[in-house]
Amino acid sequence: MNGDAALTSAPNPPFKIADIRAAIPKHCWIKNPWRSLSYVLRDFILAFGLMGMAVYIDSWIFWPLYWTAQGSVFMGLGHGSFSDNRMLNNVMGHVLLTFVLTPFHGFRIGHRTHHQNHGHADKDEAWVPLPENIYKNLDSSTKFLRFTILFPLLAHPLYLLYRSPGKDGSHFNPNTELFLPSERSNVFFSTVCWSLMFVLLLVLSVVIGPVQMIKLYWIPYWGVPLQSGTKDCGLFIMRYMKEICLDKELKFVSKWLRRGSLSYGVDDLNEIRIEWAKYFMKHETS
Known about the structure:
single chain; 2 strands; globular; disordered N terminus
């Protein structure tokens, strides 16, 4: 294509978002807080049950199994899909996201901005293409942390702390341009909750020992393969969970141990798209 050729956009699809919403059965839009809370209780029982088993068995054969399963147990709250009660959403959001060292309101607002501008080269909050001039001006430590094998381990904490390259502020700082003045008190409260959780983890490290704390909390916290070439974070997690569920020969344990060199691409996630669509059409539209 020569430089004078005009770029043409693809034609609009033969349907609108309203048509998609109308095709989804009405019962799928009903938010049941009791069902949502039952899922939370189930996951808490599973998470702390796994933790208790790991401590009781205390075997290096079982620890990798624990890390794999626990890393999957750890968004609907930020989207408001947990219930119609905003207060309940906020309370449960702080309980659950603070537990995994994520400031609820800071992340909720940033994630909202991401979905409102999904794929936008300038306005997207989470998946921002990095222009060459910004990349060249990154300091060496930032390049090393973001573009090496350490990225899968540090991507989420770095994103929370510094946002994406080229954007100023932090998800912890109420005065960041990402937040409206009316949202700053909520962001501050979430940051306080995050700080208290971090202090609790430090106290627990003293009480039960730092090595035990690393095995119980920090390794599951970082135990996810790299997401590559796609923005579909929800499908990425579903693909990861599918591997765990179908791993009858326990090969996933060794895969988890070398996760830094692993990644999921578009083809891996297309498989989940197709399976989810078939499941939905079979069970929800009949």
